[in-house]
Design a protein that fits this description.
The protein is of the alpha/beta class. It has 2 domains: 122 residues, Rossmann fold (3-Layer(aba) Sandwich), CATH 3.40.50.2300; 97 residues, Orthogonal Bundle (Arc Repressor Mutant, subunit A), CATH 1.10.10.10. 40% of the residues lie in helices and 20% in strands. The protein has 8 helices and 11 strands. It comes from Rhodohalobacter sulfatireducens. InterPro entries: CheY-like_superfamily, OmpR/PhoB-type_DNA-bd, Sig_transdc_resp-reg_receiver, WalR-like, WH-like_DNA-bd_sf. Keywords: DNA-binding, Phosphoprotein, Transcription, Transcription regulation, Two-component regulatory system. This is Response regulator transcription factor.
Length: 233
């Protein structure tokens, strides 16, 4: 699965706020919930680097949604995140004002949970870098843009060589590579690498994969590759 996105949700009506937060969490999002503007600013201060998108009710106590949006747009970390205004104010001039403040979307209440989630997903898809690419095999997910590997939402710490190995296998799932081919891929200009080096890296990579270790298969007499029996269709 793709690593979770974190949503800042600012809504002063507690019951609807909890319902939306729970619904998004069931949809595999993390939610930071604030019931007023001061709580929202505190969450921004503490969790700015974790927030991917903000859903703001305009009419919240102390610091309203428009002011929070302005803070986000001036923030050194959050300035580019998508912002959705979710509000009972549905006049055209209110929507125009919200968009001029830097909001990306505007949803009038009442709105279904599914609709809000659909708007969130649409905006987050637009945020993906153009060269971002996710490759999924079994329970493993490779982010070739961020150069990270995930197993059941958990990031696996890899060395640069281990990452180069798993990327090679993921990008060419039907191929079996000889030790020499793998050496040429991971060794570059380094002449002081040997067949045994490949075996050690494979062993270490399998240890880190844990119960997904059988995704890397030894093809006797040939070399290594992904286990074709376990690959996603």
């Amino acid at each position: 699965m793709i690593p979770k996105h974190t949503i800042l949700l600012v809504e002063d009506e507690e019951e609807p706020a909890e319902m939306l937060a729970n619904y998004l969490e069931m949809g595999d999002y993390n939610v930071l919930l604030a019931n007023d503007g001061r709580e929202a600013l505190d969450l921004i201060e503490k969790h700015a680097s974790d927030i991917h998108l903000a859903v703001l009710d305009i009419m919240v106590p102390y610091v309203n949604g428009k002011e929070i949006c302005s803070v986000i747009r001036k923030h050194p970390v959050l300035s580019d995140i998508p912002v959705i205004f979710l509000t009972a104010k549905d006049k055209e001039k209110d929507e125009i004002e919200g968009l001029e403040l830097g909001a990306d979307d505007y949803i009038s209440k009442p709105a279904s949970l599914k609709l809000v989630k659909a708007h969130i997903e649409s905006l987050l898809r637009r945020q993906l870098p153009q060269n971002s690419k996710w490759i999924h095999h079994g329970d493993l997910l490779l982010d070739t843009n961020g150069k990270d590997l995930y197993h059941n939402d958990e990031r696996i710490e890899l060395t640069s060589t281990e990452y180069a190995l798993i990327e090679l296998f993921f990008q060419n799932p039907k191929r079996v590579y000889s030790r020499q081919e793998i050496l040429e891929h991971i060794g570059g200009d380094d002449k002081f690498v040997f067949d045994r080096t490949v075996d050690v890296h494979i062993k270490n990579l399998r240890l880190k994969l844990g119960d997904a270790s059988d995704m890397i298969k030894t093809y006797r007499g040939i070399g290594y590759g992904l286990n074709r029996d376990l690959q996603s269709v």
